[in-house]
Amino acid sequence: xxxxxxxxxxxxxxxxxxxxxxxxxxxxxISIRPKRIDSTSYSTGTFIVxxxxxxxxxxxxxxxxLDGQHRITGLSRSAxxxxxxxxxxxxxxxxxxxxSPLLANLFAQVTTAATKLDELHNEWLTYAFNLGKYATSRxxxxxxxxxxxxxxxxxxxxxxxxxxxxFFNNVQFNEHRPASPTFGGFSFKCNALGDLVSRxxxxxxxxxxxxxxxxxxxxxxxxxxxxxxxxxxxxxSSVFFGKAQSxxxxxxxxxxxxxxxxALTYGSTADYRSLLQELKFQNTNWDFSWVRxxxxxxxxxxxxxxxxxxxxxxxxxxxxxxSGNLADHLKxxxxxxxxxxxxxxxxxxxxxxxxxxxxxxxxxxxxxxxxTTTHVKATEQTSNVGDFEILDAKTVGRPLRYKExxxxxxxxxxxxxxxxxxxxxMKHYGDLSSQSELQINW
Length: 442
Hints:
By secondary structure, the chain is α+β, with helices and mostly antiparallel strands. Helices cover 32% and strands 19% of the residues. A four-stranded antiparallel beta sheet has the order 9-8-11-13. Strands 10-15-14-12 form a four-stranded mixed beta sheet. The chain has a three-stranded mixed beta sheet with strand order 4-1-5. A hairpin with a 2-residue loop joins strand 6 (159-160) and strand 7. It is elongated. The termini are far apart.
């Protein structure tokens, strides 16, 4: 109700749908009389309904609200409490057409069995009338509004910069009409795409002058998609454009996140095709049939990795270190977790000076003499490591996990065997994993 009052505090807001009223089945006093023309006997076809006021006993009030109680209460708390309200009035002329059981049944239907609007229809109305997250009183409303406007521009604009827009009429605004962009894949619902643009562009600080306007940003998404199709081979089996069993929404979203990140950094990009060729998209096998799983925890890890990798590559315009292409990098090539060793201060805290680092590379088995740097903590990981666990390498059965090293750090002392033997289990895209072992002496 407070949110409704907030909406009506905007002087331009009107009640969009009528309140359903009925005569109190247990009281009387309402009169109905036909409206006449200039006090003659000729009827106008309309009626005048006289409703008595000043009723102190709530049970004797002449009208019941069957539907719209929250709207009425919200309006009454707003700056427009005196505004007229559209109503539908269930009223007879004494024939008892609306009995109390019938009114009770109607009340039950409108309050418990009402059919909700389709998700996308509701999103459009919320946007069009500046409600919910698009309300002008909300701090983030400008970002949400511009993001959704970007989606609208992407769907309604036939061409950008003289080139046909493959998303024209191909973003889903209707629950019953799925979208099908020209080159396949990227079949986004308007609300999901709007949230993506808001979260990864308009809600973030821009590094290149000012944010692109919605039409300009829509053009970026369109041209990046065209360049991707021109650069990637084996469309039918690719994660971007392939058939249903080959497509991966995670990778499609990650590509758009990378485009949005590049727009934040550089503004408009003139030649996406050259950028993607520099990143070896044309030489990469985008058939990800090697993926084991993309559901449950693997979904969260894979989404994090894909977005980090594509964002980093598209912004820097360079491949990750030790990887010849992005697909191999997603699998775990060159993966590493960095351990930082520090001396302890008299207060028992890690000192800022004299730190040493050890990179635990995928598949490696090594050793490190910590000496007096007896505080150890995992501080970095490559972009293809979505999550990791540090376990005791000697434990048989249920593994012993060193969460302290993963978190605030562990102090090597007499509580632990010297050397301490650990194994880092790194998790990669598609539920793949790898390991690195290390023996720590001190």
